[in-house]
Amino acid sequence: MIKIKTILFLLFISNSILAQTNFFKMPDGTILDEKTFNRKKNDMIETGNINVGVEAVIIRNDSIIKEVKLDYLNPFTKHKKKIGTAFEIQKFKNKEGKNYDENYLKGKASLINFWSINCEPCIKEFPDLNRIKQQFNNSVNFVAITVDSSVDVENFLKKHKFDYDQITDSLFPLLNELKINALPMTIILDKNGIILNVYGGLITDNENEVIETLKNSL
């Protein structure tokens, strides 16, 4: 009889836990229901910047509260996975509003820098990027891609020297197509438009490596 009662008691506990509603407590104290949390979790993971996990579980009457832990990741790591694949220049538009041909960058090695006029680190690395270009001149494609409008970029560059071919108005392809949400970022392509390396943040510490990679790709 004791064994039967024990089994029934355990079954009762199991059923009670299964019947409980799951809630998730975010680091800022916000409580989310399971559906809302899963949607938010998927959005955060999609950015590639955050690892979402459960740190503790609190059982209270008819609910289970799971305390969520967020580990912030390097926002450039996901782009390094693209090394060895073709850069999709055809997702971007030229000054006439037409998409670039997929072969636009082929035939030369390329350095592509992603930047914005509102990004201080981007502006800080202009001298380094200009210096790299001076070493190679026309033997390498030097391209800068920005979310800013052509008018804003033109006015901005009157006061700041950044001697690269500018591809402007690129908010949609950067955020929605390539998922680039951190700046500055620089990528190196070989003559066939294949990504050789990805550099997140200031190029300064990697300048010598970038130059060597470009030399080997001539």
TrEMBL record:
An example of a Pfam family matching this protein is: AhpC-TSA
Keywords of the record: Signal
The protein's matches in InterPro entries, at most eight in alphabetical order, are given as:
AhpC/TSA, Thioredoxin-like_sf, Thioredoxin_domain, Thioredoxin_ResA/DsbE_sf
Entry keyword annotation includes Signal? yes
Q: Does the keyword Membrane apply?
A: no
Drop me one GO molecular function for this one: antioxidant activity
Q: Which PROSITE patterns match?
A: THIOREDOXIN_2 (PS51352)
Top-rank taxon: Bacteria
Q: Which spans are transmembrane here?
A: none
Q: Where is the Thioredoxin domain?
A: 81-218
Cleaved signal peptide residues: 1-19
**Stored PANTHER family:** PROTEIN DIPZ (PTHR42852:SF13), THIOL:DISULFIDE INTERCHANGE PROTEIN DSBE (PTHR42852)
Name-wise, this protein is: Thiol-disulfide oxidoreductase ResA
Please name the source species: Flavobacterium panici
